[in-house]
Specification:
Length: 847
């Protein structure tokens, strides 16, 4: 599910580029990328107000465009989210004529490009039409060996008119017809897995045709080199921009790609470098304790040695503390420069919650940032940040309570006789970072004078609902309920806002006169858990002019079944109270009431506002039950060096039927897991009958990306839950099933010579290898007992002849006396962490 950038209408990080209702998003499958203008286009018309700049690439990865929010911005900022269990790879992109084209390069074939409207404020002119006098220009990449995949782009330096180039398939050549004039051309060469090239040439057409050569031997590797030898590149972007909003380059999200550019001098042109570097060997399970966010631009001139060297001491440094949302879980830190001429990609790197990350960033550059929970369903949009050289004070991200922090853009408003409801930041943290969760369900109920005007149940959090109301001023009661049960958070499972207000018709869109509540809790640890006394603060803020007063603060330790009032300290719009958290409390819920002097009121309830010191037990309310939990169809689950594909299924029942269910896998304890496997989407629950549903999740995990530690082999538990259709009962099982995640093994056997005379010596060799999740390779498995087995021709039973031990390289070798025809094999018995392996058989003819 896409990140909800579309709803950040007033934040400084970014909004998805606004797409007017008359604009279409084009998804264009092209042959040879930007050269085939006749390829059919799929036109996707955006919905008004909820228009969303996101698309799926041909590889299944998700592309999103982030708007810098800067007036006059000409270049889009991009974020590419990987498919589950896979690392993203290499991409070529161009931005010109108000369109963005992105083509994945991580396949040995032509991959369809994806094209989006960028909303560029300074688009270049359209493609040139045919003119009476043109001359043939041949474009050729030289000294590049075999050239299959390449792109040529040509435009006039004066008019910025782009000209169509005809690519010759599987050759280094292209051709274009041009009228007299001065031109710029870029050749992009990307025959994976070779390095990629960005080659620039300027030339002039006078009164005859010519050949323009792009010499790869003149190109030099470019990038950012830091003086910390422990780093590795996590992601990078290299692009060249030209006047008129033309941008051409590569995004290397796999981290190991190289880009070569040729030196050039051209007024108005710039080479942009952007990199995120992390600690060597880090992964999701062992995230990097530091992160380098680096940007640099070579303006007008690309030097002969375009590698930019930077010293750590010349960077800005800060430490960011990430709190866990009631449970240890994985997340990603996402960032990108917010200045048009400094990069164009938003890159993420894994972080573990809770943790601290030392950040080194290019000074005096504004970076937009976000913390993405789970598999990008939930996000906190962090404040834009620009730091000076040297050490700056750190910040804490993800502080509970997570609550509605007030709308970012007319969350609840009316015009005339229509009210629109869309409270857009329901999971913002108490540090003021606005947040969202796409897995949440939102319900609204609006009434007036005892009459229900609107009842919308279990809406998507991104869906805006509307209702027609009388034009005359009237009193209203509005209740918003936000509910979620998710694997990446145990806090703020439900938030209820009960507003009472008065409203009349307005000629322009105007906020409803609602009161917002900001909650804070001091005394929580890194997991947002209270172990003793905490101080709870509450501040009321009216959206329209009014004077607010906090009138009550209550807490509950049984998810809101019973409430206890707390004595308040302070007056007016801010108040606080101390709470000695009971030792038997697993969670503490909060409820705050406030009024203003215009007669409006609010009561805000946050269920599970923060964790308590007691363990979190299984929960069952009502008759909902979960049974028949099956992982990988009941077969052993072995993860090879690249990953594994498997399912998790369970049956859920309730007399009222099942509304939904979900599950995830974790390693270690439920309260303190050291790794979790979260599916990108919730379980798909299929109705069997009125009371029963079967729920299924499909996992596609990467060994290095999602596991990253061999020590994680062994028992994992499945946490599963389900809700009844009437929402009156549910069950939440913390250990519904235990399954072993095994390291895959391979075993070979080879008997020689073949055929062999009876009584002669037969040599049987073999090799046992074991999947290494940390390096994504198979390696020799030393010191393991392996059985040599034989099956006589014409029989079906194997007999163990002898037992061997693998050497330091996992090799096996032994001899036997040949006596009869039959089949030889090696057999290895695995255990709770290693998969059993049996070699292919080798038949030996004994004469």
């Amino acid at each position: 599910m896409p990140l909800p950038w579309k709803r950040l209408r007033n934040t400084t990080l970014a909004t998805l580029t606004g797409v007017a209702a008359t604009t279409s998003v084009l998804l264009v499958p092209t042959d040879g990328w930007a050269t085939d203008r006749t390829a059919p286009a799929v036109t996707v018309s955006p919905a008004p107000r909820e228009a969303h700049q996101t698309a799926m690439l041909a590889t299944g990865e998700r592309l999103e465009i982030l708007d810098t929010g800067r007036k006059g911005a000409s270049k889009p900022n991009l974020w590419i989210a990987p498919k589950a269990g896979q690392t993203t790879g290499r991409y070529a992109f161009t931005s010109a004529n108000g369109k963005l084209r992105v083509r994945p390069l991580n396949q040995r074939q032509v991959v369809a490009a994806t094209e989006l409207a960028t909303g560029s404020s300074t688009p270049t002119p359209a493609f040139a039409s045919a003119t009476a006098t043109t001359y043939p220009v041949k474009l050729s990449i030289v000294n590049g060996g075999a050239v299959s995949f390449k792109t040529f782009i040509v435009w006039n330096r004066r008019t910025l008119t782009e000209y169509e180039v005809k690519n010759q398939r599987n050759s280094p050549n292209g051709s274009v017809s041009l009228p007299p004039g001065d031109y710029v051309s870029v050749a992009m060469h990307d025959d994976f897995p070779k390095p990629t090239y960005l080659l620039v040439r300027t030339f002039t057409v006078k009164s005859a045709g010519l050949t323009v050569r792009f010499d790869e031997k003149t190109a030099k590797e470019t990038g950012v080199k830091v003086d910390d030898a422990t780093t590795r590149r996590n992601a990078s972007s290299v692009s060249i921009s030209f006047p008129g909003g033309i941008e051409i380059g590569y995004a290397l999200l796999g981290g190991d790609g190289k880009v070569y550019v040729n030196p050039f001098s051209l007024t108005g042109a710039a080479l942009h470098l952007q990199e995120v570097q992390v600690k060597q060997g880090s992964s999701v399970s062992a995230p990097s304790p530091y992160r380098y966010d680096l940007s640099h631009t070579f303006q007008n001139t690309v030097p002969a040695s375009p590698m930019f060297h930077v010293r750590t001491s010349s960077l800005a440094k800060t430490v960011t503390t990430f709190r866990a949302p009631g449970t240890d879980t994985n997340a990603s830190l996402l960032s990108g420069p917010m200045v048009d001429d400094l990069g164009g990609m938003f890159f993420d790197s894994p972080v573990w919650l809770p943790s601290t990350v030392t950040e080194y960033v290019t000074p005096d550059v504004t970076y937009g940032r976000a913390l993405v929970y789970g598999n990008s369903e939930s996000v906190l949009i962090l404040k834009d940040r620009k730091l000076p050289v040297g050490t700056s004070a750190g910040e804490t991200v993800g502080t509970a309570p997570f609550d509605l922090r007030g709308p970012q853009y007319l969350g609840a408003y009316r015009q005339g006789t229509t009210m629109w409801l869309n409270e857009d930041s329901p999971f913002s943290d108490s540090a003021g970072n606005f947040g969202f969760d796409n897995r949440a369900k939102v319900s609204y109920e609006l009434s007036s004078e005892g009459k229900t005007l609107l009842s919308a149940v279990d809406q998507s959090p991104s869906k805006e609902v509307r209702v027609t109301v009388p034009a005359a001023r009237a009193d209203y009661a509005l209740t918003e309920t936000v509910s979620r049960t998710v694997p990446y958070s145990r806090l703020s499972s439900q938030m209820i806002s009960e507003w009472k207000f008065s409203s009349a018709a307005a000629t322009r869109p105007a906020d409803l006169p609602l009161i917002d509540i900001d909650l804070s809790v001091s005394g929580l640890d890194s997991r947002n858990t209270a172990t003793s006394t905490v101080r709870i603060g509450a501040t009321a803020t009216a959206r329209l002019r009014a004077t607010e007063t906090v009138t009550g603060l209550e807490y509950s330790t049984d998810d809101g079944t019973t409430w206890t009032s707390l004595p308040l300290t302070g007056t007016g719009d801010s108040a606080s109270a101390e709470l000695a958290v009971p030792a038997d409390a697993s969670f503490v819920s909060l409820r705050v009431s406030a009024v203003d002097d215009e007669g409006e009121s609010v009561r805000r309830t946050v269920i599970r506002a923060f964790s308590g010191p007691a363990p979190q037990p299984d929960q069952t309310v009502g008759a909902t039950k979960i049974s028949n939990v099956v992982v990988n169809d009941g077969k052993p689950l072995a993860v090879d060096p690249f990953g594994a594909f498997f399912s998790v299924k369970f049956t859920a029942t309730d007399p009222a039927g099942i509304a939904d269910g979900d599950a995830y896998l974790y390693h270690g304890s439920y309260d303190r897991p050291d790794n979790v496997l979260i599916n990108p989407v919730p379980a798909q629950c299929t109705k069997v009958n009125a009371t029963t549903s079967t729920c299924e999740l499909i996992y596609n995990i990467g060994s290095q990306l999602d596991l990253g530690k061999n020590s994680l082999a062994g028992p994992w538990k499945v946490a599963a839950w389900a809700h009844s259709r009437d929402r009156k009962s549910y069950t939440d099982l913390h250990a519904a099933k235990t399954v072993n995640l095994l390291r895959a093994t391979k075993l070979s056997a080879n008997a020689t010579p073949e055929p062999i005379r009876k009584g002669k010596t037969l040599t049987i060799t073999g090799k046992l290898t074991l999947a290494n999740w940390e390096t994504s390779t198979y390696a020799g498995f030393a010191g393991q007992s392996v059985r040599l087995q034989f099956r006589k021709a014409g029989t079906s039973t194997y007999t163990t002849i002898k037992t061997l031990t693998t050497n330091a390289s996992g090799d096996l070798k032994t001899t036997v006396t040949a006596s009869r025809d039959g089949y030889w094999r090696y057999s290895f018995v695995g255990n709770s962490t290693v998969r059993t392996a049996i070699s292919a058989v080798d038949y030996v003819d004994v004469r």
